[in-house]
Amino acid sequence: MTSLNKKIELLVNQLGKVCQDKRITLVTAESCTGGGIAYFITKEPQCSAMLERGYVTYSNQAKVSLLEVSPEALQIFGAVSKKVTQQMAEGALKNSTAQVAVATSGIAGEDIESGQSKTGVVWIACAGIAKKTLIREFSIKGEREEFVLHTILTAFELLYEFIS
Questions:
Q1: Which positions ≥6 away from 102 have C-beta within 8 Å?
Q2: Contact indicator for 151, 104 with CB cutoff of 8 Å
Q3: Pseudo-torsion of CA 102, 105, 109, 111, nearest 10°?
Q4: C-alpha angle with apex 101: 16 to 145, nearest 5 degrees?
Q5: Residue 126 pLDDT > 90, yes or no?
Q6: Quick count: other Cβ atoms within 10 Å of Cβ 97?
């Protein structure tokens, strides 16, 4: 187990306690993390009280059909953008019974669709039933696996900040 994995697991454990105390369930909407956030939650013993559901919406079509992301936002801003990540989080929340959603969208490698390489750009959004959506942009470097793990850790850090 890498030290990064251990950091994630410790943070998820703390997050689980906060969720349990506040009776909060989570929904995930993941693109660049490919279900990794939900995976780390399910490793926790209290996961069934914490995770309501998870969406892996790697394609634009999945973002539109499952999370109600607007095709116009995808066309104008692109999949890796503040607007689309916000819509992912808010759509996941709307299409679940959870109280809080977290969404990730980023570029771990070259963007094949546009031919551009904005490697390391990540948007993470947290949405809540009674809270304004929190969205932040990050720059995360490293090989693909390291990028994904750092993005997962950063998402949990933002989620912890949002819930606490």
A1: 26, 27, 28, 29, 37, 89, 124, 125, 126, 155, 158, 159
A2: yes
A3: 170
A4: 75
A5: yes
A6: 9
